[in-house]
Input
Amino acid sequence: MTLTTKPTMTRTKLLILISFLFVTHLAFGQNQKAEDMIREGVALHDKGEYQKAIETYQKVLEMAPNSSVANYEISYSYLAAKDYKNAEKFSKKVIDLNNGNVLGAYITYGNALDLQGKTKKAMKVYESAAKDFHHYLVYYNYAICCFNAGETDKAYDLAIKAITDYPSHASSHLILSKIMERKGSRIKAMLPLYFFLLLEPNSGRSAVEYQTLRNYIDHGVTREGEKNINVVVPEDEDPDFGAAEMMVSLSKASNSLEENKGKTDLELFAENNDNIFKVMGELKKDHTGFWWDFYVSFFYRMANENLTKPFSYYISESDGDEAAKWLNDHPEEFDRFKIWMNIPNN
Output
């Protein structure tokens, strides 16, 4: 499996980088014409008119060839236009100029290299960036490169750093899930996937990852006839999570009990999640570390607040109308969940 960094390289996030990380104004702010042209280029880029944006930035660079903003913006538009060589060229110039927009340039530079198949070189770029910027986007993109290069342990450490730096970055949880899938740990692939779906419940990729989560839960449980259910618990390289692995399979197997007949698939999904979160929470009493202190603690608190049900429906929105209908029909439960999660009302 090869992953790309496209989900992170969005206009919104890069504008955040420019506006809040660097607090960078246009280097040639006194030149109103150039400033207006930059804004025009950004607007064109946002409409998907990358070539027109590039042509606009080229005119700016004729006036101010060493503008870090113009060089950065044109590199980003070249990246969006899949002209990776020019994205590499102009983002490297921003880094060499070293007078603003350097973090964004490092990310564009690394992406451009990785998308040309120059993964090892991209890793060196991110290694340099990590020395200057202790920032989740550096760690995340570096993790992607390491994952694609087969350096799974290094990718793991970087993904943890990214999440620790900014827990609300959905893609960092997703790459950690993929890393743990490769490592063969079902429960550790599930936990960040739950969190990813919490942060991004209804997108194109969340629909895919939701099914991945459901497949994890179903794994190892088969039925033979009316009464025989076979449960095979996957071996986990981390023995501390062995009981949790067993709980996942047993929760799924319990769906066939007489008492659960007539319940919908999503009702059973919510009950399974609640059982899993509570069992892991009880196991946490004897354990510490990132997985226990971040994921397990979070979901255990949620379960103890009786919020697993609205959570389960919320992350199931990409699967069809049943979840949306339940959320609409149970506004009090959903509102309580949103308040607990600090999710704004639409």
Summary: Residues 130 and 138 are 6 Å apart (CA to CA). Strands lie at 221-224, 228-231. The first strand starts at residue 221 and ends at 224. Residues 265-284 form the longest helix (20 residues).
